[in-house]
Amino acid sequence: MKQKKFTEKTISDLLLGIAVGDAMGVPFEFLTREALDQQPVQDITGWAMHEQPPGTYSDDTALTLCLAESMAEGLDIEELGKKMCDWFRKGYWSAHGEVFDIGIGTRIALQKILSGSPTVMAGGDKDMDNGNGSLMRIAPLALDSRYREPQTLWNTIEAVSSITHRHVRSHIACFIWVIYLQELLKGDDKRKAYENMRIQVNLFFDQHTLPVRERELFDRLLVHDIQQIDRSVINSGGYVLDTLEAAFWCFLNTQQYDAAILLGINLGRDTDTTAAVIGAAAGLYYGMENIPAHWSEALARRDDIEALSEKLFHTLSSHSQQTHP
Ligand SMILES: [Mg+2]
Structural domain tally of the chain? Predict the structure, then answer.
């Protein structure tokens, strides 16, 4: 297997992939699939739903950038929580200094932290607390080779997700997605990476006690073949399992960055988050050179994202024995 060289560009590919996907989806958030079927999104646009100019990314990217920056500084959960609260209160890492989009679970958790609750206990832990708010910001963890050891990755995901989402279902979703991104980083074909992810995740879960029902919820991804599922049963709302399934389905069923993102947006509802999650895989896999130039040129704070990629690369490169796939 030919291994992909890990460079500063690998990090930019991931972060720009997420940010551009998010920004592409922002104008269409909450639109129904039926409405989009009548008038599908075919190219970049702005305004509409959130009254933001083209290229404006939202909470998904801002909180992903908070994690990437925190990783560049050594990943301290308290510090990450502070950055996320700074985003919430002051628009830190936002596209234009303004927070115009926030999920309910994230809002409640960050308010709890601001009132003094311990950071890793802030997220909701009930069945109903499984929105896609931690999945949408988890991707940078795939970049650190120290998390290639599954138990270390699981423990890190528990901490990072729990800031806003403390239920095991959200942790499983994040784990599956990060393992998949790690497999893509190895340079394998995306289909082969999907099969490798399933083997790894199933093995890990065989060795760990998880509620059977929680594990079974992921059967369409881990036992059956998500790529073959009909579009009519791929959901695209704010539920973490729906977003994860939609991301795999769109990415596996397309051959270009733009096609994957547009397929995701045209599923409707949580268009920006679905596209941001797809964008992580598509950005890593195809590289930023495959993102249409007029999409990436419109992106807010592109230079800042590139500078952050460089900073994170220096930190990851300096880890002793750092051997990237
Ligand atoms: Mg959003």
Answer: 1
Q: Per-residue pLDDT tens for 141-173?
A: 999 999 999 999 999 999 999 999 999 999 999
**Which single residue is written with the structure tokens 């999907």?**
194
* 208 contact partners, CB below 8 Å, separation of at least 6: 154
Tens of pLDDT along 265-316?
999 999 999 999 999 999 999 999 999 999 999 999 999 999 999 999 999 9
Is the pLDDT at 219 greater than 50? The verdict is yes
Distance (Å) from CA 136 to ligand 1 centroid = 9
In a domain, 60, yes or no: yes
2 in any annotated domain:
no
Distance 139 CA to ligand 1 centre (A): 15
Query: Where is 36: in which H helix or E strand?
Result: helix 33-38
H helix runs in the chain, sequence order:
8-25, 33-38, 59-72, 77-90, 104-114, 150-162, 168-185, 190-206, 212-216, 219-222, 240-252, 257-265, 271-286, 293-298, 302-318
Q: Distance, CA 263 to ligand 1 centroid (Å)?
A: 17
Question: Has residue 1 been placed in a domain?
Answer: no
Q: Give 4 Cα–ligand 1 centroid separation in angstroms.
A: 30
Domain span at 14:
8-318
314 assigned to some structural domain: yes
CA of 133 to the centre of ligand 1 (A): 9
For residue 114, give the CATH number of its domain: 1.10.4080.10
Residues 158, 236: Cα–Cα separation, whole Å: 24
